[in-house]
Design goal:
Chain lengths: 137, 127
């Protein structure tokens, strides 16, 4: 107890947190890797809902279809697909590091740029392909 | 070899359970498996964009597709269970709330996993 009182009177210095540092790409990617991981975790509920609807019958599937084809459904699915690619590339980055390579600053920056900018491109490519299969153009 | 842990620490059963390496390794193994498996699902969804119910269920009812879907479900659910465990351990420090969150993580992962598996198996056997 006396330790607690002492700590309250003279708070221990805290190490600087994210609001102190200048934001870097690697920092953003680290946060996004975890954020997309958590988002994909929640997203598996959507996968389960879609599969259960398909297994339940045409009516249930039509309900899911009406949501997934609405603008908000499309928006969520677009984000879902980006999160998937982003997390996948983040994972590939970790695979490179797992081999003990790519830790020097130059490679860290190169790999970070690839991880940041390739997934959005892939996401757009996938959606252009999907819409072309849909017969949109 | 002398034991570095106190008897109380051992009795509580917390701290190192010698599972860390296995956790790390399984996270990487499932991550590796997830790459081709999720690419398959994304590819399948792309080519089936706008497909009607009959086409979609015929595809999902294909036994080979069912095998890949079940592998994807097992690998992805295992991976996300491991991942969220780390997130919980990083951010939730209260002993009781951490334990509850870890249990909830297992329940959620298992529920979603079983639900997906039941759906896939029904789609495959319906053919």
């Amino acid at each position: 107890m006396s330790d607690q009182v002492e700590t309250q009177k003279h708070p221990r210095p805290l190490s600087p947190h994210i609001q102190i540092y200048r934001w870097t790409l690697t920092m953003v990617l680290s946060i996004l890797h975890r954020a997309t991981g958590v988002a994909l975790y929640a997203g598996t509920a959507l996968l389960a809902g879609w599969l259960l609807a398909a297994a339940s019958g045409e009516e249930a599937y039509a309900v899911v279809q009406s949501i997934s084809t609405a603008w908000y459904g499309r928006l969520v699915l677009f984000g879902y697909s980006w999160a998937l690619f982003h997390h996948m590339f983040g994972g590939l980055r970790h695979f490179i590091w797992d081999t003990g390579r790519g830790f020097d600053l130059r490679h860290v920056e190169i790999i970070a740029r690839v991880t940041a900018f390739v997934p959005p491109v892939l996401t757009i490519v996938v959606w252009v392909l999907a819409y072309s299969y849909l017969g949109a153009f | 070899m002398s034991d570095m842990r106190t008897p109380l620490s051992r009795a509580r059963g917390l701290g190192s359970a010698k599972k860390g390496t296995h956790h790390f390794w399984m996270q990487r193994v499932t991550a590796l498996a997830n790459i081709p498996l999720t690419l398959f699902l994304v590819g399948a969804l792309v080519v089936h964009a706008g497909a009607d119910y009959a086409t979609m269920t015929a595809f999902l009812g294909n036994p080979l597709v069912g095998v890949v879907m079940l592998l994807l479900i097992v690998s992805a659910i295992y991976h996300m269970r491991l991942g969220l465990q780390v997130v919980i351990e990083d951010y939730i420090h209260g002993e009781a709330s951490k334990l509850l969150a870890l249990i909830a993580n297992n329940f959620f992962a298992l529920t979603i996993g079983v639900a997906c598996c039941v759906a896939v198996l029904k789609l495959v056997t319906a053919q």
